[in-house]
Amino acid sequence: MLPNTTMLPENLPEMIAKRVPQRLDLSSVSRRGFLLGVTASAGGLAIGFRPAQATEATSTEATSDAANPLEAYIEIAEDGSVTVLSSQFDMGQGSYHGLATLVVEELGCGWEKLSVRGVNGNTALYGNIAFGGAFQGSGGSTSIFTSWDRYRQAAATARAMLTQAAAQEWGVPAGEITIADGLIGHGDKAASLGAFAAAAAKLPVPGDVTLKAPDTWTEIGNPDLKRYDRVGKTKGQQDFTLDVKLPGMLTAVMIHPPKFGATVKSVDAAQAKAQPGVVDVVTIHRGVAVVAKDMWSAITGRDLVTVEWDESQAETRGTEQILSEYRALLDQPPQAVARNDGDTAAALAAADRVLEADYEFPFLAHAAMEPLNAAARMNADGTLEVWGGHQMPDLYQHIVSQVTGVDMANIRMHIMKTGGGFGRRAVGDADVVSEAVAIGQAIGWKAPVKVQWTRENDMRGGRYRPAYTHRLKAGLDKDGNIVAWENHIVGQSIMAGGPFGGMVQNGIDPTSVEGASNLPYAIPNLSVGLTTTDVKVPVLWWRSVGSTHTAYTTEAFLDEIAEAVGKDPVALRLDLLKDHPRHAAVLKLAAEKAGWGKPVAEGRALGIAVHESFQSYVAQVAEVSMEDGEIRVHRVVCAVDCGIAVNPDTIKAQMEGGVGFGLGAILREEITMTDGEVDQGNYDLYEPLRIDAMPVVEVHIVDSDANPTGVGEPGVPPIGPAVANAVAKLTGNRIRTLPMAKGMTT
Amino acid sequence: MTKFTLNGTEHTLDVDPGMPLLWALRDHVGLTGTKFGCGLAQCGACTVHVDGVPMRSCQTFVGDIEGASVTTIEGLSDKVAETVQQVWADLDVPQCGYCQSGQIMSAVALLTETQKPSDADIDDAMAGNLCRCATYHRIRAAIHEAANRLEA
Ligand code: FES
Ligand code: FES
């Protein structure tokens, strides 16, 4: 069964560019704009969401627009097992569990027979509401946001249909039927949901269903609820793309250009091809692939291939040169202005004192534990199946079609769970996925093939968090008030030139300035400028994107100002956050829980930071000491406001993980290049956090009835500046070059 | 031909003795619970027990395990292992789960050797196991909790 792709627009990449909103401003997205509606498709009717305008005319027709949540979002098998069909991708952050929670809550199906499967192929059904519904994708911590109404409503509708089916069969009033824990009941009658699923799916779909009242929720907000997928993950039973094994499958490893932008000039593969186990060596659009009967034969075969590269178009600068050019650009006026309140230049000129600080951020690798991979099989009937961590499945399907010439309707994307992602699996050119199908094509589809990157492929394969420099200036009046704030950011654009290029407007890539251009502090004269650089190192969103650097500079610089004017960093922030109660509330909560203002243990200091990303608000207090010149973070107290807490334990886990991920990055992680070649190839030189450096993390969730927002990314940004501010207290040293292992000495 | 015991049963492998045990297990035996993360003994995702000792199977070669007893995540069965896996689930440790086979293999080896590990013992035993999702906070708590339950 191939998905129905007739709902996919022909020109998807252009559509994405045109229709995805300028900035991911969830507060301006109208959820009501996407009502449960009907979309006609070749395979019959499917229930979907479409803009209110289109459905308003039909909404009065109550049940006449029959459509089916039991096909589009929820599958119930005869044995009562329930499969949630997820539009959202799970790379470990728990989005499958989140969507399942919404369904279990409204459907009453219980957890015992529940599973979740990723689906795609119909933008009307699965398009991300945060992206204007224009395409299916996971990113910007939007999975719960986009699913909140959609999946609750689908489940409530399915429940109504099951109730109706049972009422008809049993000849009793629908109002007397109960559904709980996977059982439909009436009096002493009870049956599994599976017993009525087929009949229910044939009923007209009610146009109007009532969602459960918050005070009757048993799953949403339940702090004791554990992830449905946890047990398999403790037994090695969770399958990833690494584990895809198809009959007769071959394994390929890649040789990528050593410098970004280089292309294959010639290949000498004679020795490799003579080696037992090696099946073929093929040149594709992204390099050379060694195809073998197993992974070890592919790896050893690869060592025997010699490739000559054409480096005429390649990036040959090293990171030292790139960064020194960025430093020089800070002295020039910014190319574009992202925000301009008042008259910052005049206010700086008139200020009593001006503080200034430059910051420097390295390229960072996502370095997820599962190196990138994808598998593909051409079937005898001409259909093509592709397995992988398809974070933007419709776009990837288009690219697969372009690479292979196979019609979209004959391509099936199998969406696998992945060993991490952190942004790396949402890439506009579908890199590893396109490799898998190109290799399949190059070997004449004589067997299914999986391409598996080695760690070195993954580390040196590009798509890094871009390097940036920042210059911040603050003007203070005689009383120590901040009268001016200027922030100039220099670095590459993540979105320019890709399918999201349309979001870059007036020289501003919103992902370069987010977190800086929406600075919440009340400062009358404020300007944020951007200079976008032309570097051939491929870059990408990296867990929390712009906030990975903007939170650091804004929150560390504000701390410097607090010190300069002799104010408490919490008190100063609260003064400036009068119009931002959600920022203020998490700040206060974290400060209070961490014992801010009370004495700390000898040799230790507290640092604090607050930052909003993707409409979730997080404050963190880090308790830090110096041990033999090294930074040691003992404890982090974190307060988070992400609206209604759908899965409190997952929120905690994401905050803990965000702290560890962000802490690793600021302490030691950096990708450097020498003459255009990446120096780090593995975890020996690229050093994520290990357990011995992990602090105790204490998470406090703000009670809220606001619509839920995401938590996959927002835990990352505050940890860097919180630690930097504590280190400044301990040592007087303001670290402005990252990673800190380097910045301590420069 | 290499003869060894795998998860309690006699096994023979007819592959290049220089092949890392990791790829032999995954591609030739068909046990995929043991994961590949780095190939360089840097991440611990491939950890198995060889005669009870945690080893990185990406740097252990088929030729080295002649006559040895190898246990993978699929073959864990004793009380320590069951307790560790139960606690791991109770504390909801895994996020993506990719590193967790290796984490659990290292934790089981630690708790088999040391009944009441200190934080420093945990650092020593577990620092070779990377978790990019940074579930470390819960891993530490789970090891302490497993020690408590095993003692009770
Ligand atoms: S794969 Fe063996 S230690 Fe990383
Ligand atoms: S749980 Fe994802 S790498 Fe550890």
UniProtKB/TrEMBL annotation, chain B:
GO terms for molecular function: 2 iron, 2 sulfur cluster binding; metal ion binding; oxidoreductase activity. It comes from the Bacteria. Residues 1-76 form the 2Fe-2S ferredoxin-type domain. PROSITE patterns: 2FE2S_FER_1, 2FE2S_FER_2. The lineage of its organism: Bacteria, Pseudomonadati, Pseudomonadota, Alphaproteobacteria, Rhodospirillales. This is (2Fe-2S)-binding protein. Keywords: 2Fe-2S, Iron, Iron-sulfur, Metal-binding, Oxidoreductase. InterPro entries: 2Fe-2S-bd (IPR002888), 2Fe-2S-bd_dom_sf (IPR036884), 2Fe-2S_ferredoxin-like_sf (IPR036010), 2Fe-2S_ferredoxin-type (IPR001041), 2Fe2S_fd_BS (IPR006058), Beta-grasp_dom_sf (IPR012675), Diverse_Oxidoreductases (IPR051452). It comes from Pacificispira spongiicola. Pfam families: Fer2, Fer2_2.
